[in-house]
Amino acid sequence: MFRTSLCFLAVWSTLLAGDVRADEPGSGPGYFRYPTLSDNGIVFTAAGDLWRVGIRGGEATRLTTKAGEESHAAVSPDGTQVAFSATFDGPTEVYVQRLIDGALPVRLTYEIDGAIVVGWTTDGAVLYTTRRHGDLPGVHLARVDPVTRDTTVLPLSLASDGRYDDEGVLYVTRFAFQGSFTKRYQGGGAQSIWRFRPGATEAEPLTANFAGTSRSPMPWRGRIYFQSDRDGTMNVWSMLPDGRDLRQHTHHVDFDVQGASLRGGRIVYQLAADLRVLDVTNGEDVLVPIRLTSMLTQGKERGVPAPAEWISSAHLSPTGDRLALTARGQVFVAPVKKGPVSLAAREPGVRYRDARFLSDGHTLVALADRTGEFEFWTFPADASRPPIAVSTGATVTRRDGVPSPDGRFVAHQDQDQRLWVHDVVTGEGRIVATSETTAFRDLRWSADGQWLAYVQTGANALARIWLYGVRDGKARPVTTDRFDSYSPTWSPDGAWLYFLSDRTFDSLVASPWGARQPEPFFDRQTRVYQLALKHGARSRFATKDERTTPARDPLDIGAGADGIAVPGPGAIDFDGLAARVSDVPLVPGNYSSLDTDGQRLYFLSWDASAPGRKALRMMPIGDSRGLETLAGSVDRYEVSLDGSTLLLVRGDDLLVLPADGTMPHDVSRTKVVFGDWTLTVQPRDEWRQIFVDAWRQQRDGFYDRGMHGVDWVAMRARYEPLIARVTDRAELGDLVAQMVGELSALHMYVHGGDVAKGDEALLGSLGATLVRDEHRGGYRVTRVFIGDPDLPGERSPLAAPHADVREGDVITAVDGVSSLVPDHIQLLLRDALDKDVRLRVVAGDSGTVRDVVVRPISSRRAAELRYRSWEIERRRRVDEAAAGTIGYLHLRAMNAADMAEWQRAFYPVQGRQGLIIDLRRNTGGNIDSWLLSRLLRQAWFYWQPRTGHPTPNMPSAYRGHIAVLVDQETASDGEAFAEGVRRLGLGVVIGTRTWGGEIWGSVGGALVDRGTATVPDTGVFSAQGEWMIEGHGVDPDVVVENLPAATFRGEDAQLAAAVAYLEQRIREAPVPTVKTPRYPDKRAPIVTSTAAR
């Protein structure tokens, strides 16, 4: 059996001394993106900066050097300037820089929500896209004059890219990139090309006959060149201005064409990591050989500031005097009191995970992908020898390793939901159980290391505790399958198993009657229970007259290494075990994470109104009256093996305190302060590991083990060589995105990681549209975002009663500084988020000058206010058009906040004859079943009180007609709800085909630098056995498109169609008025005299 790493001793000593790679490149090939052409050269992005090179290649020179990423460059028509997007000052904005003398960049936009350069107009304006203009989330094309800074929004909704031809015809890409890295995407959000001619009232679709992607139109000499995946791979195509005469100009198969840009009959584009130039006049397509001449510092070894911020796991040593820390894929050991942090494990291109001490206090065990798969390894805490393999032969990722108290075994599970026990000495691995429901959890060893308790969810979705015996290899359930039982913890003597179980169901809501459909709410379901593992055991919680002293302890306790109590071999009396469960005398509550040091029980507790704020509580065993709260706001905690010490995790802080039953006067004073700690990373090695980890997460987590028929090993082989070309973290993200996109699945997101950033100043917003007005001496307020008038918290700072800044007023100063002094008033709101600022305001009608104090909000909050304005306007239109007979509600997503929106918006209109449920732009979530269950309620009888109208049972059953509005951005669970409405016969779906993402995704494991590559891990199929929605979307029953120009003008054809449909249905099948039947006649029958005789 392979037990040690070949040639590792030399590597390990070099590693600990600090790995300095002789082949670290300072210059050379790079990873080239976002190219654009000048008349005789190319400008592109590499290593986060802009570069320039001749049209035939050669040595490139750097144009920008500031922190952050510069991208989407476009050279002006006269070739003297380059416009680009950058994050110099926080948000992505448009900048322009002269090419001739290398002057500093000049900022042109202050959109806050992001601005991406598209190109230039022939008259010298910069075209860019922004999400700021318009209330409904979506992109718009705008132009900005580099001289005057005047901005104009082009009159087309949802145009994400565009170019003018020589006749002034505008060709645009409709819709932005839909977010998921999905090759061969053909859902409702597929990009297409439209034409907008001068003087026309509406744009025309040119590529509507293809369900896939057509984007980036580039007019030149009577043809429109563009990118399309019509042959399964993104290539360059062209067509006539009316969409006819399609021609394919590139024929790449392995990699997509990206970032194509045309100038003077030549198209430059990215292919893999290279740039190529296509001459459309003769079809010549050549690689541009480029060498970067400046130092590429982002790939060089560097120290990581604030190492503690990168801690991914922390565990106590057996006696609680040290911590095993895993940070950025490396393992460190730190004293809990002051002292240096020492390196225990670090290897080039290897990620260590979740290091823990073994019981000897000198050895660590951790997962590491040293062999290409995550296996368990042991190694000394002082790094004096190389690691030794505990497990081998992994075919999927192993995780969640828990060593036994005697140091002999490691229990863990893998991504295929198999529970393992590995022998640390022999390396033998044994599968304990396999789960067909959810992952195993709460793995806890008995003190003698002979029994493993774990929690497995059954087919009935209820969690059950099992015990696995190392000696006999058998697993046995020890709690009922009728209630959730979890968080087992052993008494040190092995006589008791304490656990939590949800068995108390006292609803705080007593009846189904009342506003907004009251439903049961079961708070404080959990109690602490104890299970006697030996016959005759007496609970320490029992009263004295109930308790007897056994002749001998159920298990003999001896002293092990380091003075830690180690029980002798113990057996469990399984006969009659179920009858030996009893309550611990503690009131029910919201509890989790039960543990014990042998003298006390510890657990986390929280209030239902604030589930994120958990407190660590302690109760002495045998004295329920001694319940104490040790600390609040605790995310996680653990007890050292000897029971002497507690580790508390509170946000980024680690707190260590004695487990002696006393409450520290100030818990914050127990915070671990790390001494000298050096954390260095070699980015190039780390990038390679991240790439493989992202590939491995898809292999082990993708819902289809067949990977949609894609040869996943071959995909790794195709893309992995490109890692050598990567020069910064953003480029690695692009590479990973291209690879995972080959699976052609939605919910495939790649983002985050240790990306170079510019200034991250917090920018405040006044929640209004402001226009620079030199004539009036400041910024004129053209619109104030009010939000919901019935919710005072939803309004702009300018709309606060004490401020009362109105449209037409002018803001002339901020905190005493003229608003016209900086380039934009936004610069005066830097770092002003949630801080008081003083505005000088001139009234627009009277000219009265006054000072008001307001608190700026975030740009995200301002965008939410704009969004709310759109929703309120839709509701007003429906009320006005239908005279109050049709209700309207809009759901932005399908999360808890949207359930709250349903509560606010549905019940006030539940009695109307028609209902519009607007799911346009719905970003998904998971509450479709909640909402569908409400709409499925039927009124099958009525209550009639003495006074008043009859009311239905089921309460709040909706009896009217329903229309659901969808569009290309209705996504995920929003699509599931729309399809459910149709399949369950609840209503009709109106609009356009939806996004098409119904393989639900999870974040997966975070990458070593906290980047993520989500894993679509759960497919959806219907009761009829067909895969649903994925890749295509929900087809509406009634197709209505909101056209670009009409929508920009404020029209909403889809909403109007929904109103018209419901009005027709109400006329054809009005909801019957509920009429109380004739009351029964209960009088005694009249008896006639004849009958009497």
From TrEMBL:
Site described as Transition state stabilizer, located at 973
Which GO BP terms apply?
proteolysis
EC number from the UniProt entry: 3.4.21.-
**Active-site residues, as the UniProt record annotates them:** 747, 972, 1030
UniProt keywords, alphabetically: Cytoplasm, Hydrolase, Protease, Serine protease
- Domain Tail specific protease per the UniProt entry, residue ranges: 846-1041
This protein's GO cellular component annotations are:
cytoplasm
Q: What class of enzyme is it?
A: hydrolase
Name the domain of life this protein comes from. Answer: Bacteria
Q: Which InterPro entries match?
A: ClpP/crotonase-like_dom_sf, PDZ_sf, Tail-specific_protease, Tricorn_C1, Tricorn_PDZ, Tricorn_protease, WD40/YVTN_repeat-like_dom_sf
An example of a GO molecular function for this protein is: serine-type peptidase activity
A family per Pfam: Peptidase_S41
Location relative to the cell? Cytoplasm
Name where it mostly resides: cytoplasm
Q: Where is this region: Disordered?
A: 1073-1093
Which family does the UniProt entry place this protein in? Belongs to the peptidase S41B family.
- Function according to Swiss-Prot or TrEMBL: Degrades oligopeptides.
| Record's protein name | Tricorn protease homolog
Species assigned in the record: Luteitalea pratensis
